[in-house]
Amino acid sequence: MTGVSGLVVEDLVVKVHDIQAVKGVSFEIGRGRRMGLIGESGCGKSLTALALMGLLPHGVTASGRVLLNGRNLLDLSDKQMCAVRGNDIAMVFQEPMTALNPLMRVGNQVAESLRLHKGMNRAAASARAVELLERVQLPEPDRTARKYPHQLSGGQRQRVVLAIALACDPAVLVADEPTTALDVTVQAEMLRLMDTLVREEGASLLLITHDLPVVASICEELLVMYGGSIVEHGDVATVFDSPRHPYTAGLRASTVLESTDGSGRLSTIPGRVPSLGSFPTGCVYRNRCPRADDVCGTVPLLTAPPGSTQRAACHHPIESDQPLGSGKASA
Amino acid sequence: MTSVADAPPDATADVVAAGPVKPRRRWNLTLVIGAGLVGLVVLTALVSFLWTPYDPTRVDPSQTLLSPGGDHWLGTDHFGRDIVSQLLVGARTTLFVGVVAVAIAAAVGVPLGLLAATGHRWLSEPVMRALDIVFAFPAILLAIILAAGFGASTLTGMIAIGVANVPVFGRLTRAGAMQVLQSDFVLAARSYGRRGVVLMVRYVLPNIAALLIVQASVSFAHAVLAEAALSYLGYGTPPPTPTWGRMLQEAQNYFVVQPMLAVWPGLAIALSVLGFNLMGDGLRDALDPRLRGR
């Protein structure tokens, strides 16, 4: 990979009361790279994010390795992790309505992280907070800094959340569905802003979403997650244009990007995401997959064909220009 | 994809959506009335230090059980003591006991509640069970035990009422804090490195302050009533120091002869309790930036 490694995740397992919700996920985000992580709800996306941050709720445990600057974050004590959180790895949350303390002025909330990690005094942190609010393109930053969250719109609040996350120039920014709660027009601006800032800071970005266009607009690489496993990984354009895993193909077919039969209707993936612990053995997708057969009872490995970096965990991957559902004969 | 690419390049579109900030109303009627009544009680207590129409403990056998009017504005009791003077001095005890009892309850109960909310089972369970035990123990019984051990005084009364209210604050704090701890902004605060006591004090406590303030005003009202009850039973402030509770108690023997004797202290208790309740409600609204100006 690149000379400077950003975030390396090796064999991350997240267990919810002894049930594996994330099953040995490995990926690497180079410094300054932008990685998208997509999948339906309940696929373990958010748990992965929280595991990286060390913020898993009680009863949920993570094992494996999360390497950042040569340290395994999962080995750190709670106290050590607090010094890392916000400073080296920061997070943007999904719900800007609830991610801010309703009783604290937004300027102070941005200043919190600075005072905590940079040891700034109140005045310096407040001044820097106003600068940060200006960077996230909030109007009248000095006035906005004195407002409470309820006086701001959703888009404005999400900018504040972004300002908080970027306050200490983190090496890695984890954004968990940062635009899902926003209006479509605001989403676009928010994404563009995030893209710009992440580029300027040279930070690595892990963008978690279930929205393919969002990933396409700012990410370079793409991870597709299903049932707690990564089912496909590769360059965004390649994965989009010629998905190898049937799940990725199904996801793509169910967006506006594709209209398969010319009827203008969106296609759907049959069935729904099983609840935690009731995924099938072997390939996690086989109960919904049009290409599944007996071979799928064994766990497929995440492999790439020769000469490609597009890895897919499938026994019957879709080869280019092959219609979905007709893979068995050739495989 | 198209929505992303075609969005207007205007970076302030979402700013317009925020709308004007509502002008803030500086006061609310509930708070004003509540604070007015409480202020009246405070003023009464303060005035009693400087001036009372008569010595509240002076017995005058020639002037017993007078009706309101004349030299004694609200009349006299069975010993000929002036009712106005007694009410004025009684306000001191009422306020003092109420404030100290609530302070004891909050000072012990709130930290215990926060501690129990942190979720460590070995910490939370013992604290909560201990609070349950105190909760099950009648305040009056505690007051009687304290009075038996140390002699009945204002202090034992205050302690008994305070301790009896500790579980109320403990449980309320725990319930509120657990709810706040689940919220995204606490997770967000932890995501930028906040933890421990600072997280509890700066993020959780302010967000349950409204609950606690209302509870404090209700508890204050209860404390005033409990003090009256203890004085009435003879386990609170000993005679001859006048308290509203004992005035009420003594009035019952003469209810047929002079019913007004019971009305005055009863009215004083009712108004101060009402005042504190209203003030708590008003304060809650005034302290929450989200409710301001509604």
TrEMBL record, chain A:
- SMART domains, from UniProt? AAA
* InterPro entries (UniProt xref): AAA+_ATPase, ABC_Ni/Peptide_Import, ABC_transporter-like_ATP-bd, ABC_transporter-like_CS, Oligopep_ABC_C, P-loop_NTPase
One GO term describing the cellular component = plasma membrane
Q: Which NCBIfam families match?
A: oligo_HPY
- Tell me where in or outside the cell this protein is found: Cell membrane
Report membrane topology. Peripheral membrane protein
Q: What is the lineage of its organism?
A: Bacteria, Bacillati, Actinomycetota, Actinomycetes, Micromonosporales
Q: What is this protein called?
A: ABC transporter ATP-binding protein
What are the record keywords, sorted? ATP-binding, Cell membrane, Membrane, Nucleotide-binding, Transport
User: Could you tell me one molecular function GO term of this UniProt entry?
Assistant: ATP hydrolysis activity
From TrEMBL, chain B:
Q: Which SUPFAM superfamilies match?
A: MetI-like (SSF161098)
The residue ranges of the ABC transmembrane type-1 domain are 91-280
Show the InterPro entries listed in the entry: BP-dependent_transpt_permease, MetI-like, MetI-like_sf
Q: Which GO terms describe its cellular component?
A: plasma membrane
Highest taxon listed in the record's lineage? Bacteria
Coarse class of the primary localization is membrane
Cell compartment(s), UniProt: Cell membrane
One family from Pfam that matches here is BPD_transp_1
**Its Gene Ontology biological processes?**
transmembrane transport
- Transmembrane helix keyword on record: yes
Where are its TM segments located? 29-51, 95-118, 130-149, 204-235, 255-276
The way this protein sits in the membrane is described as: Multi-pass membrane protein
UniProt keywords, alphabetically:
Cell membrane, Membrane, Transmembrane, Transmembrane helix, Transport
In the record, the note on similarity to other proteins reads: Belongs to the binding-protein-dependent transport system permease family.
Protein name, per record: ABC transporter permease
Task: Tell me what organism the protein belongs to.
Answer: Micromonospora tulbaghiae
